[in-house]
Batch of 4 targets.
Target 1
Amino acid sequence: MKIHEYQAKEIFKKYGLPVPNDVLCHSVEEVEKAMAKKDGMVVVKAQVLVGGRGKAGGVKLAKSKQEAIDAASQILGMDIKGLTVEKILLADAVDIEKEFYVGLINDRNTKSVTLMASAEGGVEIEEVAKNTPELIHKFPIDPLNGLLDFQAREIGMQLFGDVKLARKAAGILQKLYTLFVETDATIAEINPLVLTPDHKIWAIDGKMNFDDNALYRQPKIEAMREADEDELKEIDAHEKGLSYVKLDGNIGCMVNGAGLAMATMDMIKLYGGEPANFLDIGGSSNPQKVVDAMNILISDKNVNAVMINIFGGITRCDDVARGLIEALDTIQSDMPIVVRLSGTNADEGLALLKEKGLPTVQTMSEAAKKAIELSQVQKS
Amino acid sequence: MSILVNKDTKLLVQGITGRDGRFHAGRMKEYGTNIVAGTSPGKGGQVVDGVPVFDTVAEAVKKTGANTSIIFVPAAFAADAILEASYAGIELVIAISEGVPIQDMIRVTAIIQRNGTKLIGPNCPGLITPDEALVGILPGMIFKKGNIGLMSRSGTLTYEVVNMLTMSDMGQSTVVGIGGDPVAGLYYIDLLEMYENDPETEAVVLIGEIGGDAEEQAAEYIAKHMTKPVVSFIAGQTAPPGKRMGHAGAIISSGSGTAEEKIKAFAKANVPVAKEPSEIPGLLKEKLAKINA
């Protein structure tokens, strides 16, 4: 789960990280009001859940109230990578002597929370990682000890090269680690972490993502969720026991199992079609799941054919077929469908479906070809 | 031989009185797995399907000599269940539970490593050594005893491939579902080493998917250390970046973890990558023919 910069900064502040004062605004009027209480420069920042705001013109420095109002009226309503800016953050500007990067992630290889730090802050860290990986220092943190004082100081020293600053930085790193673990984060990033000419350190930008599996014990984090239309569909599907991700193609897929669902999408592409989605209905023959899944696929206006791909394991294919038939009878849609059943009792299952007049096939490749063919008939 | 589980496996089922635990314990027993005990706090003394139930893992181990455990408890309690098994001296723990928080697994893997416990999963279908032991939720009837080792991050995709192997008369030594989570127990390299040392395994199938770089690391390991042939399949070539594809670990983040990178790494290591799952038996036959020629 992703959150906005202003929300990440709220968490940062709660854990005592140094964040410049800021105000969240939804309109130019709110900016006008907020600026009445401010003197000095502010940064006007678009709040959208994608990276690259700066490049898109979504971040502007304002030296006066009027400049802030002008910037706000330009940025509010702006389109950044398909998202409309509805909120902006007015943050007090600070003088920058040098910019750093610090971030925490869960590292699969070391099976630990890993701190990444770089003296090359302010730019997109993915670029640094790709082009000059040697400039990013990585420190796996022992989960049984946490980030120890001396370790944090050492990292601070590597970044700032000054004992006093290293101590300050150490406190920031330890707080960042604590909030990362306590909020079940998957990313907690300060980029840039800024050093001012008078040797103060500020977290100027913040990014946080969270572990979906841990949201059950993080109600405050979950309450921060702002889902877009596609994500709402994904969340709704999740509540029905389905796992759904929308894509841009026209062939809807309904599959049991995540790996097989991905392989099904790949197969459609391999044979020249475009998959409309990822959809894993899980392991049972429950007709309600098929009904829910079918409704999701039909609600996607791009979809003009559906490929159902089921491997019957413990749930035998004849049970799966009965569930499918019951579900399709309930829906009464004229969406062209091809069903592929394989595994335990596949022949019995296929016979049942044939009786119902449903196009059935036995292999994934045949199913993909047939689905593409059906979608082309629909188009013409 | 085979790896990890066999006729000598003495299995304990943690969460045996729950719906899933009870159902799958029955199926594993039917397959011939030696289930010696179950646990469920507060239900000690009961008998489920002929299996004695204990309150704690420690007690079950003491009374029955269980050496392997399978966990069916809800995700929120999975970390504690794994640790309970580890501290009770269980050698191999298989965690089926789906949805375990990453921070829990980071803490758990650090502790069990210290204790010397092996873990498979979480969020996995378990493993099987055909005709000897089924420890998981895999459909036993599609497997056949033989010489192909197979490991995979996915469930049904594994069954799909196994079914094709069995129908091509290529039996399996041990098939392991390592699970779809980003932080998990035994992974490709650990298992590759076991397959390489297992006299019963002649060749290995590696089924990977997007997210992380375990496949790339496996490719490097194969090039350096494996004498047995390995073939692979990677799912998720059409997956969009930044979206979790069902499995918590199946996500392309910041442009890394793509199928393309993994396929490239395997090509470099001379590991054939099937364009679709149905090509796997053919690729294996080619590789094996070369060796036996």
Target 2
Amino acid sequence: MRINEETGMSLIVKTVSRWLKGFVFLFGMYLTFYGHLTPGGGFSGGVVIACTFVLLTLAFGKERALGKLGKTLSSVLDCSGALLFLLIALAGIFISGVFFENFIEKNYPGKVFHLFSAGIIPLCNIAIAIKVGASLFMVFIILAVRRVIEVDGKRKLISTEFFDMPERKVK
Amino acid sequence: MVESTIAVMTIFMIIAAIIALETTDLLSAVISVGAIGVAVSICFLLVGAPDIAITQMVVEVLSLIILIRATIRHDLTTINGDREFFGLTVTLAFLFLFFLFGLRAFWSLPGFGNPVISQFPEAPANRYISSGLSETGATNIVTAVILDYRGYDTLGEATVLFTAIWGALAIMRVFSRKKRGNKNEDK
């Protein structure tokens, strides 16, 4: 077996993770999209989505997870989720005159217990899920995937993934 | 039934917290902290708060993974050494004092299943419960409160998370961009 295939955990863990990762991701999306109808919401859905990529990192190694959700993409998703949330809040000022006004529900009231109801609440849930998922995955990568490198003769534990570190003296 | 289960869970949490404090192995301490989180999640589920229970459980799992990977993997730390007598005495005295205050506070709480807002009809929470569905259209009342009535609070919370994470990312970066540019020029 080549060295690249040996990253991550054993074959059993890899097989189970390959089957389960889609369902975990689907559960996160369910929690997000149905947050205004059933228990759940943007924050918990975003954490479950982040857990999917954490599962990928633990089972298959960091190259596979970072290939799917790289550092640039997760930074962009983090910022765009926060900005989207703020823009939805600001749109209330320009459309209805009140900050965080539920202008969609006021103008086009939806049916109760339908997916497209409750106005801006599902949009806010999606924005929060994008933001929380990307940022918690960044936190996991920067705290958990670390390398020992030598700086000025001392061995230091640093996170090398997120910022383009020089690859010198890596042990 | 619910109250007795919560009492059992509370005793379990106290035992797990003592284990987490007193054990010398860092991995056992982290696992005990995770057990506390699971017990808190079960308590939330029992008192009828599934939103908080889901959030507590998934955040607990993620933080447990991060704690294990970040603290255990590279530096296995064992903590040893005796406690000082004076410090232990002061700690126990203050714990007893806080226990007395906590007991007084618990006695003044309303009974189980009889919340404070039922005694004050003009409280805003009563309006959230009675007209939340017709005003926001969301059947999940928790989401209706945190994203419609109290959306400003949620925006502040999201801002706190955003700022904390980007501050942490900036601190964890060891080499600044300017320094790295200078090194490239040297080469």
Target 3
Amino acid sequence: MFEKYETKKEGVIRGYDVHSFYVKCLIIVILIICILMAAACLFPALWVFLASFKDIKEFKTNVTIFPSHFDFKVFLKTWNELKFLNYYLNSLILVAGSTVCAVIFNGLIAYGLGVLKPKGYKAVQGLVMWSLLIPATTSMVALFVNINRVGLNRSFVPLWLAYGANAFFVVLFKQFFESMPSDLFEAAKLDGCGVLHVFFLILLPLSKPIIMVVTIFAINASWSDFLLPYLVLNGSGKETVMITLFKFRNANTPFVDVLRAVFYSIIPPAILFMLFQKQITGGAVMGAIKE
Amino acid sequence: MLNLETGLERSVRTVRKQNFFKQKDTVGWLVMLPTLILFAFFVWEPLLESIRLSMYTAKGVRLQEFVGFDNYIALFKHPDFLAAFKNTFTYILWSLLLGFPIPIIMAVLISETVHLKGFFRIGVYFPNMVPGMATVFIWRFFFTPGNTGVLNILLSKLGISNQIWLNDPKLTIPLIILTMTWKNAGSTALIYMAGISNISGDLYEAATIDGAGIWQRIRYIVLPSIFSLGKTLLILQVIAVFQVLYEPLVMTNGGPNNASISLMQLVYNYAFRDYKYPMGAALSVLICVVLVILSGIYTKLTKEKSKGGRGRDV
């Protein structure tokens, strides 16, 4: 197992260190710690799945990690009892609209800031960068009051549009556009392409990777979003999965039903993660490398 | 091709290019306009509106009369504010002790592996995908006192008696920070790993020739290289901790006896539980002022970094 370390490209332990016994021990210890770390990260979600198989009696009396039997019918039963299909559909409506808004609006402003750079764009850029650091939660009260004033409460519209004003996505788009070779735009300019031509014929087809990343992040963020959806949608019959989950916090819902609800809420992001690990872990690092 | 270009064609192109630049300004702003309106409505205007709101009394969402700083004074006098204010520092302290070093340790360790490296990267990032609301529910099950709590089940296997976890006022905040760290450490570790993988192998080799052992290489090469990255991530972390809301709201409801109530939770209680929007707005403004100062420090730190010629190498 140590041969692979001979060609190790990064990190403190170099290929030439591996011959010493001490380093070999160290390598094994590190590997064990890393396995434990990954286990600690994955176990809680796995436990939710395992414990969801228990019934209430078993949950209270049988204090083990593993359930005594695996019966997938219980998931279906709770799903129907809690009418989760309804909440899933509401979440789906929220996610779809939010994602479309996130891509279109943030992409457009990034095209302005990163490529067109019209006179005075720097002021906008500064404002957007500040919004990146001032978290949305601090203006939640005023935003909620405003949404009420314009009569958009109990509607998906403000939640969708809120994703069109996301500084993080703007930065992702902008970085991507700026990393494109400028010759590309020069050539297009010389050929007399209009600004919108450049956008639709050159920028958009080449932007697939970044649109992908923003789409994935927007799906995950809007699926997990809680506070604003709760304030706007609660009591309107359009409650999403997260709102429903939150309502379980004091209610007398049986523990196992809450557990299964938690499990339902994790499935979509888990599937998303399985499908797009590369884009997601890559995007997480990309966003941190700013300016 | 270009050589054959006639004078006429060339001048046509110049005109077109000029057109592009003229067009660029108007169309540029037109392209940005819809998003600017959204930013104004969802981000910038609410910030100003918070200030206005915080100086009025209100009935529901309708403003009644101007009262100046009365809401702020009422806020300061309220015992919950003092508790939340104190707790915020405890939150920050524990996030410095747990949330800050853990991702660094994870990144250094995972960078040293060759086997299963892809699995580790994905494994530690996974908690970040779990929705925040689900995370706090999961950990509430883990911290359940009595013998049905998951951690108590695990501890009983080691022969340790049941703990009361979140019900112990001394443990509440550290455990909440632990929950937050579980969720966020992996994604932060990936950023540090990107930093570590950018360190040139020559540095290690030169250090080895000078007789540096493995620990010395970590101390004198790895840690200094991720130092500037660490500074910025630390500020971002403090900003995040300032807004901790879901965890105390769902896991402890601020208790026991206000031991874990956070500033954002107080905003939530004022505005969305008691419908006192002006009070909620006043507290939001205070939090915002602190965050603006922290963001200022952050911007200064990132600027210094790029001045140092390190640019995008984080």
Target 4
Amino acid sequence: MADRVTQEPDRREREARAATSGAPSTSSEGQAAPALQTEAKGQRPAAGTREAIYDLDDVGVAYGGVPAVREVTFPIYQHEITALIGPSGCGKSTLIRCLNRMNDLIPAAAVTGKVAYHGQNLYDDEIDPVQVRKHIGMVFQKPNPFPKSIYDNIAFGPRVLGMDGDMDEIVESALRRGALWDEVKDRLKTNAFGMSGGQQQRLCIARALATSPDVILMDEPCSALDPISTGRIEDLMLELKQNYSIVIVTHNMQQAARVSNMTAFFTVELDADEKQRTGRVVEYDDTEKVFTNPSDERTEAYVTGKVG
Amino acid sequence: MNTVPEASLSRKAVERASSGQRTKDLMFKLMLLLSVSVGFVVLAALMLDVLVDGGSRVSLDFVTSFPSRISPENTGVKSALIGTIYLMILCAVFIVPVGVATAVYLEEYANRESRLSRIIEVNIQNLAAVPSVVYGILGLAFIVRGPLGLGPVLLAGALTLGLLVLPVVIIVAREAIRAVPSSIREGSMALGATQWQTIWKQVLPGALPGIATGVILALSRAIGETAPLLVIGAATFARFNPEGITDRFTAMPLAIFEFISDADTEFRSAGAAAIIVLLALLVVMNAGAIFLRNRYERKW
């Protein structure tokens, strides 16, 4: 039932948007710092004022010369949830790791093309990846709390960034935004490893929120969780998109359909002569359209479950 | 009632192991047990022998008296025990920063594919296997004489032993650092922490129990070494304690060496007592290492 409740306003939005907008605008007016949205939940700016927070232009990633994903070109809109779906090996996780330069941690990875964030190419020479990650948080497939107390897990980010203010308040605020405060307020000093998997993942989300990022990247955040924990995290995502832009990689198509506004469907293309497997975007559109009336037959085959 | 005949049928279907196979199995087990007992029995015999010879000589007086050349009943290991403890501390001061820094570089910064880091890696493995007397000669040539020219003093001994066990510390520290899962590093970096902050605040605290265990085990090897200290010219007999790092010194293995090579059997029992003291020290250190490992071991 929780799904239905959270899905309803979303569907209305999408219908409203589909009625007023044609093709998604690719212009990036989002040069200014993102202002906090004050609309009530379920409402968003009219379609014409959608701001692209990212503009991907011919983005490709190769590991040691072998392309993993290429020719990715689409905008990602502010204060929306963008889902990346597709079969294994299609490069969606690789792509999401370009959005905060986490690919830099893999020495063999080479990124081509332009990943514009508020108009600024993140792969420009003068960009410091550490600064990028201060603005763009990330949640991983497997919950990865630090082997510290719940409090210290949340406080780690603000501390390394040298954030001002009362740490107790920062921690409480982050845990509240992560919908975890009521469950853990009495055991903040206990080790985070004692939490359940779902709680650990929400702790990781709260930890990402503590540094007040603009964007949260989620790489299959629910794949290690049971359906109840998954439902809670989906509810949380719908709440968070009021103030944050979210990009999520998921293998769970129902999840993409439930939470996202826009969906990019990736597929693996086999190079006939070289036998290389490379991921490409087949379709990027409103989630409603991708799941009900996809324009490409490969998308249709995938979302209807005809091919895995 | 249907299930009973079915069950007995299926029991028939499985053949019984032949008695020959069982004998083979038993023989193999016995051989393994025999192999285990070789090491164990020899060690136990050695310990027993030492205890019988020197057990009665171990006393507070023995560890608080300077050695004597004339009266075996009044001789002691004070200077050697103090020397060994100083050696251990100085050695730790040298190997912990150098060893951990090397391990951090090799694990976190060096490009593992590069030829240079592979050469370094193979060399460290080889250095760990170099005989200790070779390190003694190295210490004599470069630390006692030669470029450093310290003379056969405490610092020279500590540096020589430090070089000897440094490869072990590096290898253990690398393993401990590698055991910290990459998801912890990613989680830290994704929050905007620099690589240095990630290493200092996440990786090293996570690797600390493993590193500490390795350092203790390395030190317990260092304080048992005799050959390098003999080669660099440390005293085997000293009726004085080292006062500073540039003083001459002796150490437990050297005192044992001195006692045992005496013609007088009375002195030899003092040697056995010194062995007991050194073994006790080693047992305490290794117990500390095991405690650390069990107490702070992390299951990621």
